[in-house]
Amino acid sequence: KLGNRGLAITDHECLSNHVEAINIVNDLKKANQIANDFKLILGNEIYLLDKHEMRELQKNKEKIVFYHCLLLAKDKIGHEQLRELSSRAWRDNYLSYRGMNRVPTFYSDIEEVIEDNKGHLIMSTACIGSLLGNLSTQLMTTEDETEQLNIKGQMADFIEWGLDWFGEDFYLEMQPNTSDEQKFYNNLLIKISNSYNIPLIITTDVHFIDEETREAHKAFLTSDDNSTNREVDYFYETTRFFKT
Questions:
Q1: CA–CA gap between residue 45 and residue 130 (Å, rounded)
Q2: DSSP 8-state symbol, 205
Q3: What is the largest CA-CA distance in the chain?
Q4: FRET partner for 109 with CA separation of 20 to 30 A, picked from 37, 88, 89, 138?
């Protein structure tokens, strides 16, 4: 109804909605409610970490940040790789961290799964909750030149890893938002895109359908009503579907 010609379904470390999504799209096409060329992209929003760094943080009881990253299947082989990576995350990497269940995917998992069969997965840098997004916020908030150089070095390492393993299927993801952090990040992504010749994509990281359902989404996120709840309006303001 909004005129979109496709969407990607990318739940957090979860592929179980893919079958239902495929069936819904097929039913809507048969009923002529959506166009036959409507594109459903099957993906996963993983938590991407370095295994050794995480183990070291665990040992020292330091804070672990579970960085967001998007993987999208280009074909059947790509979806097989998604399933293998998700299985590894749940089977081998599952842990409880500060009262939350976490299922990270390690860089080494991706390297082992796609090593001999690249070209079937798309990788996107995802939202500001990604490694690049976190580093961008750090860059924005420090005036220490040495620290700035260190942050830029970490960014370069990540970008070069993405290009090595995904090549032309590696994308920088921008999102519309009114926050200063997102604006700074978007401008930084444009500079990175120009420097490395990496394509930019724009997504809205949909968490609710439209403005009418925004309050329900807010109520869900704050339903436990404790002091750890963040200010959700500011962070999720534009995470909805937009008209084309």
A1: 10
A2: -
A3: 60
A4: 138
